[in-house]
Protein backbone atom coordinates (compact mmCIF):
# COMPACT_ATOMS: atom_id res chain seq x y z
CA UNK A 1 0.00 0.00 0.00
CA UNK A 2 2.43 2.65 1.14
CA UNK A 3 5.40 3.75 -0.89
CA UNK A 4 8.58 3.47 1.14
CA UNK A 5 10.51 5.91 -0.97
CA UNK A 6 9.66 9.01 -2.91
CA UNK A 7 8.62 7.06 -6.01
CA UNK A 8 4.93 7.45 -6.76
CA UNK A 9 2.78 4.39 -6.27
CA UNK A 10 1.02 3.11 -9.34
CA UNK A 11 -2.24 1.18 -9.30
CA UNK A 12 -3.54 -1.16 -11.97
CA UNK A 13 -7.22 -0.88 -12.79
CA UNK A 14 -9.13 -3.47 -14.79
CA UNK A 15 -12.25 -2.65 -16.80
CA UNK A 16 -15.16 -5.07 -17.18
CA UNK A 17 -13.94 -5.92 -20.69
CA UNK A 18 -10.53 -6.88 -19.26
CA UNK A 19 -8.48 -3.88 -20.29
CA UNK A 20 -5.69 -2.97 -17.85
CA UNK A 21 -4.74 0.61 -17.01
CA UNK A 22 -1.91 1.99 -14.90
CA UNK A 23 -2.62 5.14 -12.96
CA UNK A 24 -0.80 7.03 -10.22
CA UNK A 25 -2.35 6.32 -6.82
CA UNK A 26 -2.47 10.04 -6.07
CA UNK A 27 -4.77 10.54 -9.10
CA UNK A 28 -6.79 7.35 -8.68
CA UNK A 29 -7.81 8.14 -5.10
CA UNK A 30 -10.02 10.94 -6.45
CA UNK A 31 -12.38 7.99 -6.59
CA UNK A 32 -13.63 7.32 -3.06
CA UNK A 33 -14.30 3.71 -4.09
CA UNK A 34 -10.63 3.25 -5.03
CA UNK A 35 -9.40 5.27 -2.04
CA UNK A 36 -11.27 2.95 0.31
CA UNK A 37 -9.69 -0.08 -1.34
CA UNK A 38 -6.24 1.49 -0.99
CA UNK A 39 -6.84 2.36 2.66
CA UNK A 40 -8.10 -1.15 3.37
CA UNK A 41 -4.98 -2.58 1.76
CA UNK A 42 -6.94 -4.26 -1.04
CA UNK A 43 -5.21 -2.47 -3.86
CA UNK A 44 -2.05 -4.54 -4.00
CA UNK A 45 -2.72 -6.37 -7.25
CA UNK A 46 -5.17 -5.51 -9.96
CA UNK A 47 -8.29 -3.55 -8.99
CA UNK A 48 -11.29 -4.91 -10.91
CA UNK A 49 -13.94 -2.32 -11.78
CA UNK A 50 -16.87 -4.45 -12.84
CA UNK A 51 -19.23 -1.65 -13.81
CA UNK A 52 -16.93 0.33 -16.11
CA UNK A 53 -15.91 -0.55 -19.67
CA UNK A 54 -12.45 0.14 -21.07
CA UNK A 55 -13.42 3.10 -23.23
CA UNK A 56 -15.09 4.88 -20.33
CA UNK A 57 -12.33 3.98 -17.88
CA UNK A 58 -9.71 5.42 -20.24
CA UNK A 59 -11.65 8.65 -20.30
CA UNK A 60 -12.07 8.72 -16.52
CA UNK A 61 -8.33 8.16 -16.05
CA UNK A 62 -7.57 11.03 -18.44
CA UNK A 63 -9.78 13.16 -16.22
CA UNK A 64 -8.13 11.89 -13.00
CA UNK A 65 -4.67 12.73 -14.33
CA UNK A 66 -5.73 16.08 -15.72
CA UNK A 67 -7.58 17.35 -12.68
CA UNK A 68 -5.04 16.11 -10.12
CA UNK A 69 -2.28 17.97 -11.99
CA UNK A 70 -4.06 21.25 -11.30
CA UNK A 71 -3.22 22.87 -7.98
CA UNK A 72 -5.99 23.88 -5.59
CA UNK A 73 -7.59 26.48 -7.82
CA UNK A 74 -11.31 25.91 -8.24
CA UNK A 75 -11.57 28.24 -11.24
CA UNK A 76 -8.88 26.35 -13.16
CA UNK A 77 -10.40 22.99 -12.20
CA UNK A 78 -13.79 24.16 -13.44
CA UNK A 79 -12.42 25.30 -16.76
CA UNK A 80 -10.56 21.98 -17.14
CA UNK A 81 -13.82 20.10 -16.51
CA UNK A 82 -15.71 22.25 -19.01
CA UNK A 83 -13.06 21.68 -21.67
CA UNK A 84 -12.81 17.95 -20.89
CA UNK A 85 -16.57 17.47 -21.36
CA UNK A 86 -17.09 19.92 -24.21
CA UNK A 87 -16.75 17.43 -27.09
CA UNK A 88 -18.46 14.42 -25.46
CA UNK A 89 -21.70 13.10 -26.97
CA UNK A 90 -24.70 11.95 -24.96
CA UNK A 91 -23.75 8.25 -24.99
CA UNK A 92 -20.27 8.99 -23.65
CA UNK A 93 -21.69 11.33 -21.00
CA UNK A 94 -24.22 8.70 -19.91
CA UNK A 95 -21.44 6.10 -19.56
CA UNK A 96 -19.36 8.60 -17.61
CA UNK A 97 -22.10 9.56 -15.16
CA UNK A 98 -22.67 5.89 -14.37
CA UNK A 99 -18.91 5.33 -13.95
CA UNK A 100 -18.53 8.45 -11.78
CA UNK A 101 -21.37 7.21 -9.59
CA UNK A 102 -19.84 3.73 -9.26
CA UNK A 103 -16.38 5.16 -8.55
CA UNK A 104 -17.88 7.69 -6.14
CA UNK A 105 -16.29 10.78 -7.71
CA UNK A 106 -18.62 13.58 -6.76
CA UNK A 107 -16.82 16.34 -8.69
CA UNK A 108 -16.98 14.40 -11.96
CA UNK A 109 -20.53 13.27 -11.22
CA UNK A 110 -21.74 16.85 -10.76
CA UNK A 111 -19.87 18.14 -13.80
CA UNK A 112 -21.21 15.38 -16.08
CA UNK A 113 -24.76 15.76 -14.72
CA UNK A 114 -24.62 19.48 -15.44
CA UNK A 115 -23.33 18.79 -18.95
CA UNK A 116 -26.10 16.25 -19.63
CA UNK A 117 -28.67 18.79 -18.42
CA UNK A 118 -27.15 21.37 -20.77
CA UNK A 119 -27.37 18.93 -23.70
CA UNK A 120 -31.01 18.07 -22.85
CA UNK A 121 -32.26 21.57 -22.21
CA UNK A 122 -33.72 22.31 -25.63
CA UNK A 123 -34.41 18.74 -26.71
CA UNK A 124 -37.78 17.26 -27.53
CA UNK A 125 -39.69 14.72 -25.46
CA UNK A 126 -39.06 12.09 -28.16
CA UNK A 127 -35.30 12.69 -28.06
CA UNK A 128 -35.25 12.20 -24.29
CA UNK A 129 -37.26 8.97 -24.51
CA UNK A 130 -34.89 7.55 -27.13
CA UNK A 131 -31.66 8.55 -25.42
CA UNK A 132 -32.72 7.46 -21.95
CA UNK A 133 -34.43 4.32 -23.25
CA UNK A 134 -37.78 5.25 -21.73
CA UNK A 135 -41.02 3.72 -22.83
CA UNK A 136 -43.92 6.09 -23.26
CA UNK A 137 -46.52 4.77 -20.82
CA UNK A 138 -49.11 7.48 -21.48
CA UNK A 139 -52.18 6.84 -23.57
CA UNK A 140 -52.36 9.27 -26.52
CA UNK A 141 -55.11 11.17 -24.68
CA UNK A 142 -53.10 11.44 -21.47
CA UNK A 143 -50.01 12.57 -23.36
CA UNK A 144 -51.96 15.24 -25.22
CA UNK A 145 -53.42 16.49 -21.93
CA UNK A 146 -49.99 16.73 -20.24
CA UNK A 147 -48.60 18.61 -23.24
CA UNK A 148 -51.59 20.94 -23.36
CA UNK A 149 -51.00 21.93 -19.72
CA UNK A 150 -47.72 23.70 -20.52
CA UNK A 151 -47.99 24.41 -24.23
CA UNK A 152 -45.50 27.27 -24.09
CA UNK A 153 -42.70 24.94 -22.98
CA UNK A 154 -42.74 23.35 -26.45
CA UNK A 155 -41.74 26.61 -28.11
CA UNK A 156 -38.13 26.84 -29.25
CA UNK A 157 -37.46 23.10 -28.97
CA UNK A 158 -34.76 21.77 -31.29
CA UNK A 159 -35.99 19.77 -34.26
CA UNK A 160 -36.02 16.11 -33.50
CA UNK A 161 -33.40 14.66 -35.82
CA UNK A 162 -31.36 12.86 -33.19
CA UNK A 163 -27.79 14.09 -33.15
CA UNK B 1 -19.51 -14.32 -21.65
CA UNK B 2 -16.93 -11.57 -21.72
CA UNK B 3 -18.70 -10.02 -24.69
CA UNK B 4 -21.92 -9.40 -22.79
CA UNK B 5 -21.33 -5.66 -22.74
CA UNK B 6 -21.45 -5.35 -26.52
CA UNK B 7 -24.73 -7.18 -26.89
CA UNK B 8 -26.75 -4.75 -24.82
CA UNK B 9 -28.67 -2.13 -26.76
CA UNK B 10 -27.43 1.43 -26.14
CA UNK B 11 -30.72 2.62 -24.66
CA UNK B 12 -30.72 -0.22 -22.17
CA UNK B 13 -27.07 0.25 -21.36
CA UNK B 14 -27.86 3.84 -20.43
CA UNK B 15 -30.57 3.00 -18.00
CA UNK B 16 -29.94 5.78 -15.51
CA UNK B 17 -30.89 4.98 -11.91
CA UNK B 18 -33.39 7.21 -10.17
CA UNK B 19 -30.96 9.09 -7.92
CA UNK B 20 -28.63 9.93 -10.81
CA UNK B 21 -31.59 11.02 -12.93
CA UNK B 22 -32.71 13.39 -10.18
CA UNK B 23 -29.20 14.80 -9.99
CA UNK B 24 -29.41 15.59 -13.73
CA UNK B 25 -32.99 16.87 -13.81
CA UNK B 26 -32.48 19.27 -10.88
CA UNK B 27 -30.07 21.21 -13.10
CA UNK B 28 -32.63 21.88 -15.84
CA UNK B 29 -34.55 25.14 -16.12
CA UNK B 30 -38.26 25.09 -15.26
CA UNK B 31 -39.27 25.30 -18.93
CA UNK B 32 -37.48 22.06 -19.84
CA UNK B 33 -38.74 20.27 -16.73
CA UNK B 34 -42.35 21.16 -17.45
CA UNK B 35 -41.94 19.89 -21.02
CA UNK B 36 -40.34 16.63 -19.83
CA UNK B 37 -43.40 15.81 -17.72
CA UNK B 38 -44.62 14.36 -21.02
CA UNK B 39 -41.72 11.85 -21.23
CA UNK B 40 -43.38 9.25 -19.01
CA UNK B 41 -45.48 8.86 -15.88
CA UNK B 42 -42.46 8.26 -13.70
CA UNK B 43 -40.75 11.42 -14.98
CA UNK B 44 -43.91 13.36 -14.29
CA UNK B 45 -44.03 12.03 -10.77
CA UNK B 46 -40.38 13.01 -10.10
CA UNK B 47 -40.95 16.50 -11.51
CA UNK B 48 -44.38 17.24 -10.02
CA UNK B 49 -45.11 15.02 -7.06
CA UNK B 50 -41.81 14.80 -5.22
CA UNK B 51 -41.39 17.69 -2.75
CA UNK B 52 -37.80 16.57 -2.14
CA UNK B 53 -37.04 17.11 -5.81
CA UNK B 54 -38.51 20.63 -5.73
CA UNK B 55 -36.23 21.49 -2.80
CA UNK B 56 -33.16 20.11 -4.56
CA UNK B 57 -34.11 21.99 -7.74
CA UNK B 58 -34.48 25.27 -5.86
CA UNK B 59 -31.16 24.78 -4.07
CA UNK B 60 -29.42 23.86 -7.32
CA UNK B 61 -30.89 26.90 -9.11
CA UNK B 62 -29.51 29.16 -6.40
CA UNK B 63 -26.06 27.55 -6.60
CA UNK B 64 -25.85 27.86 -10.38
CA UNK B 65 -27.25 31.41 -10.28
CA UNK B 66 -24.63 32.51 -7.76
CA UNK B 67 -21.74 30.72 -9.48
CA UNK B 68 -22.56 32.38 -12.78
CA UNK B 69 -23.19 35.75 -11.12
CA UNK B 70 -26.77 35.77 -12.22
CA UNK B 71 -28.53 37.47 -9.38
CA UNK B 72 -31.89 37.50 -10.97
CA UNK B 73 -34.03 40.21 -9.47
CA UNK B 74 -37.60 40.77 -10.38
CA UNK B 75 -38.37 43.84 -12.30
CA UNK B 76 -41.92 43.37 -13.19
CA UNK B 77 -44.03 45.51 -15.43
CA UNK B 78 -47.53 44.78 -16.53
CA UNK B 79 -49.18 46.10 -19.61
CA UNK B 80 -52.87 45.30 -19.71
CA UNK B 81 -53.26 45.03 -23.44
CA UNK B 82 -56.85 44.06 -23.94
CA UNK B 83 -56.03 40.38 -24.19
CA UNK B 84 -55.87 37.99 -21.32
CA UNK B 85 -52.13 38.42 -21.04
CA UNK B 86 -49.84 40.68 -19.15
CA UNK B 87 -46.23 41.15 -19.99
CA UNK B 88 -43.72 40.51 -17.27
CA UNK B 89 -40.15 41.62 -17.55
CA UNK B 90 -37.47 39.94 -15.50
CA UNK B 91 -34.36 41.98 -15.28
CA UNK B 92 -30.99 40.69 -14.25
CA UNK B 93 -30.02 43.11 -11.51
CA UNK B 94 -26.31 42.79 -12.23
CA UNK B 95 -26.76 43.72 -15.85
CA UNK B 96 -29.05 46.68 -15.41
CA UNK B 97 -26.74 48.71 -17.60
CA UNK B 98 -26.73 46.17 -20.39
CA UNK B 99 -30.53 46.07 -20.27
CA UNK B 100 -30.43 42.30 -20.47
CA UNK B 101 -34.00 41.27 -19.93
CA UNK B 102 -36.21 38.29 -20.16
CA UNK B 103 -39.75 38.99 -21.16
CA UNK B 104 -42.54 36.53 -20.76
CA UNK B 105 -46.20 36.66 -21.40
CA UNK B 106 -48.21 35.86 -18.36
CA UNK B 107 -51.85 34.88 -18.38
CA UNK B 108 -53.67 36.96 -15.82
CA UNK B 109 -57.07 38.33 -15.17
CA UNK B 110 -57.55 41.72 -16.61
CA UNK B 111 -57.91 44.97 -14.78
CA UNK B 112 -56.05 44.02 -11.62
CA UNK B 113 -53.18 46.51 -12.07
CA UNK B 114 -50.85 44.62 -9.83
CA UNK B 115 -47.79 45.78 -8.00
CA UNK B 116 -45.11 43.54 -6.55
CA UNK B 117 -45.08 43.53 -2.75
CA UNK B 118 -42.23 41.14 -2.19
CA UNK B 119 -40.53 38.15 -3.71
CA UNK B 120 -38.70 35.10 -2.46
CA UNK B 121 -37.24 31.97 -4.10
CA UNK B 122 -38.54 32.97 -7.51
CA UNK B 123 -42.12 33.62 -6.37
CA UNK B 124 -43.62 37.10 -6.36
CA UNK B 125 -46.47 38.28 -4.17
CA UNK B 126 -48.46 40.92 -5.93
CA UNK B 127 -51.41 43.06 -4.94
CA UNK B 128 -53.79 45.33 -6.75
CA UNK B 129 -52.91 48.98 -6.64
CA UNK B 130 -56.33 49.89 -5.36
CA UNK B 131 -55.94 50.32 -1.62
CA UNK B 132 -59.34 48.93 -0.73
CA UNK B 133 -59.01 45.82 -2.80
CA UNK B 134 -57.79 42.84 -0.85
CA UNK B 135 -56.92 40.69 -3.85
CA UNK B 136 -53.46 39.18 -3.86
CA UNK B 137 -51.76 37.12 -6.54
CA UNK B 138 -48.89 34.78 -5.82
CA UNK B 139 -47.12 34.01 -9.07
CA UNK B 140 -44.27 31.89 -10.30
CA UNK B 141 -42.91 33.41 -13.51
CA UNK B 142 -40.67 30.40 -14.23
CA UNK B 143 -43.60 28.03 -14.55
CA UNK B 144 -46.05 30.76 -15.60
CA UNK B 145 -48.46 29.70 -12.90
CA UNK B 146 -50.27 31.82 -10.37
CA UNK B 147 -52.92 31.71 -7.69
CA UNK B 148 -55.23 34.52 -6.78
CA UNK B 149 -56.59 34.89 -3.27
CA UNK B 150 -58.23 37.45 -1.04
CA UNK B 151 -57.03 38.45 2.37
CA UNK B 152 -59.98 38.78 4.79
CA UNK B 153 -58.40 41.58 6.78
CA UNK B 154 -56.46 44.66 5.93
CA UNK B 155 -52.67 44.61 6.09
CA UNK B 156 -50.41 47.62 5.98
CA UNK B 157 -47.07 46.81 4.48
CA UNK B 158 -44.29 48.21 2.46
CA UNK B 159 -42.78 46.47 -0.51
CA UNK B 160 -39.68 44.56 0.39
CA UNK B 161 -37.42 41.96 -1.08
CA UNK B 162 -36.85 38.52 0.34
UniProtKB/TrEMBL annotation, chain A:
It holds the Pfam family Skp1_POZ. One of its GO terms (molecular function) is cullin family protein binding. Residues 11-65 form the SKP1 component POZ domain. Residues 108-152 form the SKP1 component dimerisation domain. InterPro entries: SKP1 (IPR016897), SKP1-like (IPR001232), SKP1-like_dim_sf (IPR036296), SKP1/BTB/POZ_sf (IPR011333), Skp1_comp_dimer (IPR016072), Skp1_comp_POZ (IPR016073). The keyword Thylakoid does not apply. GO terms for cellular component: cytoplasm; nucleus. Pathway: Protein modification; protein ubiquitination. Keywords: Ubl conjugation pathway. GO terms for biological process: jasmonic acid mediated signaling pathway; protein ubiquitination; SCF-dependent proteasomal ubiquitin-dependent protein catabolic process. Belongs to the SKP1 family. Involved in ubiquitination and subsequent proteasomal degradation of target proteins. Together with CUL1, RBX1 and a F-box protein, it forms a SCF E3 ubiquitin ligase complex. The functional specificity of this complex depends on the type of F-box protein. In the SCF complex, it serves as an adapter that links the F-box protein to CUL1. Part of a SCF (SKP1-cullin-F-box) protein ligase complex. This is SKP1-like protein. The lineage of its organism: Eukaryota, Viridiplantae, Streptophyta, Embryophyta, Tracheophyta.
From TrEMBL, chain B:
Gene3D superfamilies: 1.20.1280.50. CDD domains: F-box_AtFBW1-like. It comes from the Eukaryota. Residues 10-56 form the F-box domain. Transmembrane segments: none annotated. This is F-box domain-containing protein. It comes from Erythranthe guttata (Yellow monkey flower).
